[in-house]
Design brief:
This is Acyltransferase. The chain has about 375 residues and is α/β, with parallel strands linked by helices. It contains 11 helices and 7 strands. It has one domain. Helix 5 links the parallel strand 3 and strand 4.
């Protein structure tokens, strides 16, 4: 096990990215029509919401200003409405930029797809810092990363599998920004399909290797394995093995599910996790099998986990303490062989994550 540079790794030669399984032409046509209709609807909604958000910002500021000025309050309604407006404007700006890039290079073919992917990563690298700077100003976001990322990042020598704790509002966006702009990696992300409702994210991730769950065809394990098999040296496959943000209710359901499956020993260990959910191992095991030379990076974080609901966001924004991110790296050679051994190993890493989170937790952090 290693806590060394994030961007180093197992040596591996570059290889061509797989373009994915070939689907029958009618299926591709139906999928394209469905995607086009979805993006049209979400884009119209985005454009309609921008003036609504602007009006909301003016209204809550005008109504709340006397009280906030008199009490030196935190201006929460104004901060939240301002961030919503910034988010929508950044989304629209990203869509317009993506359309301009497509019109500049509308031809098909592998070379064109590679250029579009590079342009999409570059555009994400410009958009995500905009959201982070807005969060820093409006919500007093501060991030402390241990061990510190090397600056500048050394040239990567192999792909990575990045397994991340999932807890709190915006943790996935923050992690992608750190990987892309600070670690110098190209994140290939496994995400919930509901995020397709964000039209900019839908378009840009559609141009880079990604996996929305559930997939349109096949199983989630197959989709993740295909994504992992195509990793190149600068790539990082990002997975959230818990499957959702931590809540005590989800934790109880996860333990109960393990008991129903007859996995009593694993259920007993999962019950002793107080701040994280037991990892759902199928996707991670599929990725490990498909990318046997990839090192694995585990990422724990605390500070955003107090924002477990809209009500909690109202109580805890702006943030009162830094968001702490802690990671460690396991070389491919140290990862055990076989699904059973790897499942046990993965649970041990999550137990380590739980211990670290417990050390950082404040009284308001959700836990069992």
């Amino acid at each position: 096990m290693s806590d060394g540079p994030l961007t180093g790794g197992t040596a591996g030669g570059a290889r061509a990215r797989p373009v994915g399984r070939t689907r029958p032409r009618p299926t591709r046509a139906i999928s394209a029509l469905s995607t086009g209709a979805r993006r049209l609807v979400t884009t119209v909604l985005l454009v309609a919401l921008i003036p609504v958000a602007a009006a909301l910002l003016v209204a809550v500021t005008a109504v709340g200003a006397p009280v906030s000025l008199a009490t030196r309050g935190p201006w929460r309604p104004t901060r939240m409405a301002a961030f919503l407006l910034v988010y929508l404007l950044a989304d629209l700006g990203g869509l317009l930029a993506a359309a301009a890039l497509f019109l500049r290079n509308p031809v098909a073919g592998p070379d064109a797809r590679a250029r579009r992917a590079a342009d999409a990563f570059a555009l994400l690298a410009r958009l995500l810092p905009v959201l982070r700077r807005a969060a820093e100003r409006l919500f007093r976001l501060e991030v402390e990363t241990t061990p510190a990322l090397p600056a500048p990042a050394p040239p990567p020598r192999g792909p990575l599998l990045v397994l991340v704790r999932h807890a709190g509002l915006g943790d996935s966006f923050l992690l992608l920004q750190i990987l892309l702009t600070e670690a110098g990696l190209l994140p290939h992300t496994v995400l919930k399909g509901v995020l397709r409702a964000d039209p900019c994210l839908d378009v840009l991730l559609g141009r880079v290797p990604h996996c929305f769950l559930p997939p349109e065809q096949g199983t989630a394990q197959d989709a993740i394995a295909e994504l992992a098999a195509g990793l190149l040296p600068r790539d990082a496959l990002v997975i959230f093995p818990e499957g959702g943000n931590f809540t005590p209710g989800r934790h109880h359901r996860a333990v109960a599910r393990l008991r129903r499956l007859g996995q009593y020993r694993r259920a007993a260990r999962a019950a002793r996790l107080h701040y994280v959910l037991p990892p759902q191992e199928a996707g991670s095991l599929a990725a490990l099998a498909a990318a046997p030379t990839a090192d694995v990076v585990f990422v724990a974080h605390s500070g955003l986990d107090v924002i477990a609901s809209p009500r909690a966001a109202w109580s805890f924004l702006p943030l009162r303490r830094p968001v702490r991110v802690h990671w460690w790296r396991v070389p491919a050679a140290d990862i055990p062989a076989g699904d059973a051994a790897r499942g046990e190993w993965l649970l041990r890493q999550w137990e380590r994550m739980d211990r670290w989170t417990a050390e950082q937790a404040v009284a308001a952090t959700p836990h069992v």
